[in-house]
Known about the structure:
The structure is a homodimer.
Chain A: H1 3-13, H2 16-25, E1 33-34, H3 35-42, H4 46-58, E2 62-67, E3 70-75, H5 77-91, H6 96-101, E4 105-106, E5 109-110, H7 112-118
Helix pairs in contact in A: 1-4, 1-5, 3-4
Chain A binds a DNA duplex through residues 11, 15, 34-36, 39, 44-55, 66, 68-71.
Amino acid sequence: xREAQALAALAALAHETRLQIVRxxxxxxxxxxxxxxxxxxxxxxxSRLSFHLSALEQAGLIVARRDxxxxxxxxxxxxxxxxxxYLLNDCCNGDETVCNTCGFDGPNGRGDCRAGIHG
Amino acid sequence: xREAQALAALAALAHETRLQIVRxxxxxxxxxxxxxxxxxxxxxxxSRLSFHLSALEQAGLIVARRDxxxxxxxxxxxxxxxxxxYLLNDCCNGDETVCNTCGFDGPNGRGDCRAGIHG
DNA sequence: TCAACGTTTCATGAGTAGTTGAAATATGAG
DNA sequence: CTCATATTTCAACTACTCATGAAACGTTGA
Lengths: 119, 119
């Protein structure tokens, strides 16, 4: 990921509602959620929600598709991964302290990443 | 890391100059760099630099100490790690696609993290 | 104490992002 | 076609962030 993209993604995530939206969408994977349902969970007006969804889409973090009269949004998880990769590698240069602190706990349990990286 | 902290950190990083500063400081670890030297590398006026350094410090991403008439700034690498951990775990729920894409390449080479996490 | 250096603070103005409510658009049902 | 639903767009306003240059602050050395 390039710096410009990373900056756009960071700016998009640096807002409470938008971060909530991403957190909500990631677990739903490709299926995503319709805008209305997202609005019900993050508690904001339709126009505000649309604004934030548009901001996230422009930053490449989510993608929209139409399903009948609803619009389904889903997280672009590779983009999120790229952003995190940028922070780890380009920004922090794979620094050991940074890596050791990220305390990853994926499907195989906390510490997997830490153990794998720096032996 | 809590959401509020993560939001503050993301907002701080979502600026070209400030991202550059962090990138510059991380490799210097605890030793850090004096403000003037940072200013020389990121090419901005002294007052602007001071503003950005202050923003990063308030977000907890860097820390300042005085050394004579100079002020030395260093990256708080654990904070960066915590932010990345927040993005991976709290925000993305340890999602496999996200993790696989982060393409970590720490000291032991690209792919360590990927291999370690999801078998 | 004085002058020089390194850095921060302040006041100001410009630009950008965020919120709101109303109106507009797009789709599906009757 | 008309109506209801789902979502987006628009205009207006507020609030915040950013940049600039001048002034102030703290430290060192003469």
